[in-house]
Amino acid sequence: MNRDEEEKLINLVRQENCLFDKSNHNYKNNTLKESTWTEIGFAIGSEGKTVKNLWCKLRTQYMQFLKKLKKLCGSQGFMMPYFRHEKALTFLKDTPELQEK
């Protein structure tokens, strides 16, 4: 997928809290989540399993990016890490999983 398709995926996932927010009452509803992934895949023109795997990769990359930022906080003379979807994924910072870290 290209960057624009990844951004579209991120925007579609952002609208579906049950896919990323553990405090959402539907987070453990696998049937609902699978149908949601299928709908997102259809909107992008791909399979649900494919977009779910891509989302997992993007989310993992974002988490690693945040860890790098945290390590470098306070350091001087360092190069700031870069992540292409940093702004688009900031909504994940509001999830309980990231708030406790």
Give the H and E element order: HHHH
Mean pLDDT: 85
Apparent shape? globular
Rg over alpha carbons = 15 Å
Query: Uncertain segments of ≥5 residues (pLDDT<50)?
Result: none
Fraction of residues in β-strands: under 5%
- Secondary structure: number of strands: 0
Helicity range:
55-70%
Major sheet, described briefly?
Answer: none
Output the number of helix runs. 4
Structural class: mainly alpha
Distance between the termini: 30 Å
Secondary-structure blueprint of this entry?
Blueprint: H1 3-14, H2 30-44, H3 48-72, H4 96-99
Q: Which structural traits does this protein have?
A:
101 residues, mainly alpha
In short:
With 101 residues, the chain is mostly helical. It has helices at residues 3-14, 30-44, 48-72, 96-99.
What does the model show?
With 101 residues, this protein is an all-alpha fold. The protein is 55% helix and 0% strand. The chain is built from 4 helices and no strands. It has helices at 3-14, 30-44, 48-72, 96-99.
